Amino acid sequence: MIDVPISALEVAMVEAGTRGVETLRDTATFARRLELLGYDRIWYAEHHHSPAIGAFPPVVLIAHAAASTSAIRLGSGGVLAPNHAPIMLAEQFGTLAALHPDRIDLGIGRGPGTFNEATARALRRGAGPATDAQYQDDVAAVLSFLVDEAALGALPEPWLLCSSTAGAALAARLGLPIVVAHHIRPENTFMVLERYRAAFIPSRWCEQPRVVVCVEAICAETEQEAAWRAGPMDVVKAGLLKGLSEIPFPTPVDAATHPFTAEERQALAGFRAQQACGTPEVVVRRLAHLAAETGADELMLTTPVYDLDARVRSYDLIKKHCEATKAP
Question: Among positive and negative, which fits the CA dihedral 133, 206, 30, 72?
Fold first, then answer.
């Protein structure tokens, strides 16, 4: 049984055989359908210069989804501080929060959002990667400018995305709630949580440690279909293992014939074992175990599968099984 809220991370994959404009249309439909299913929030990731993931700014997707829904919380998972002027982030999300009170989250991360060095430099107007000190200054500046936006009304809720103990330490020092990137670096999850909880200092943003754990979850009626649905993302991950970042998001049919090496299959199996893929019973059991092990206050599910209906179906199956297994 899962007794914590469940939310969604939308990566907005551009599927093979489709165009970016179709992905954009799907984001609003996805938000409406997850709201009807009873999910608590949807966040949008920031990516750049990838054939598989659309370069759709989170702030634009949030505004679009907010106009298409009425209650579900929406946010960034995350906007990447090195790519933006802190005052602009504060103004953009302060405006969103004023237009959609008590529905907007500002999730902040550090990564460049691209594997392409030229793109990363273009985003930073020629500057190199942000240092630890620069990133910490940027996050603090965003929070400071955010307070200035209070005149507009309710502020967005700030969060820090963490996949390392350095990020956990920063979140703890600033008194921010965190989202742990278990779907990216599951080997770091428990170190991050230990560091965060041990060092947490209460702030105006958060009185006590608050944790969301993000996990990859792919659910279908059978184990075979779930594995088939997971195939396209396996192809992308295998490419990343080889240092190839320009891998399109293939169809499940194409992914089923992809020639994985033995080493890739072993790595993919090891990763999947720490996520949740399978039937509703299997997925919910794994999610419940992860929530209990981590003490998460919320689980955020990312479901990188081809086809909007299949993606929504995965969320639907999980939600219904969670409801069915709740204690009376």
Answer: negative
